[in-house]
Amino acid sequence: MENLKLTAIAVIPARWASTRFPGKPLASIAGEPMIAHVIRRAAEAQTIGEVVVATDDERIAEASRKAGAVAVMTGECPSGTDRVAAAVLGRPGWDLVVNVQGDEPMLSARNINALVSGMAPGHEIEMGTLCRPLSLSDQNDPDSVKVVRRTDGRALYFSRAPIPFPRVTGCAADLIRRHLGIYAFTREGLRRFVELEPSPLERTECLEQLRALENGMDILVLDAPDEAIGVDSPEDLQRVEQLMRRRSALGS
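Above: the chain's sequence. Below: its structure in token form.
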């Protein structure tokens, strides 16, 4: 099994009717729609063979095709993961799908490569994700989702609450991790996940990944080499554009 290589594709779920930011995938950054930036960055990952955009809007689909992605119309879906499943479960030619956030125009190809490489055949894992260090000062921020892991790197729990609680000063510093919202699924793992009903902990914390844990699915949590920077509001656009220009000037 170790000599086998997984065929991976990236899928970007992108809907028009975002509650906080309608039409966000087409928001302009440096003269291009945000979805085009995400597509290009996903395509830079050497582990990805194809980039697919799963959407409910023809305007997003058209912009995605222009940027070089395959666009799949999915209609209404209860979640981004359901949209990914609707787009690819019937498609042949892949073993692993990476669910990429459509609001990260500075998406790191190195993060995608790390995730796909970590989901190597023979690990018997159906689902994987990434994390980064989180400072103690940000632990109380409910928008920073925390994750704690088993000694084998699989998830124990995800929460908006501060976990692990640093009861003894200094003991938790190297254990505190912020979850990054990127997932990899095997074909069977994705099928199994979307067939499950929303779970009590998922509904309580509004964290979809808790559905998997409550139903006995293992989630491999790997360390991401790069930070993830998302666009949650129109105010974030200018900040991201400035970061892009700065990195371009530095040649990175």
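The helical segments are 34-43, 58-66, 80-88, 109-118, 187-195, 200-205, 209-214, 234-250.
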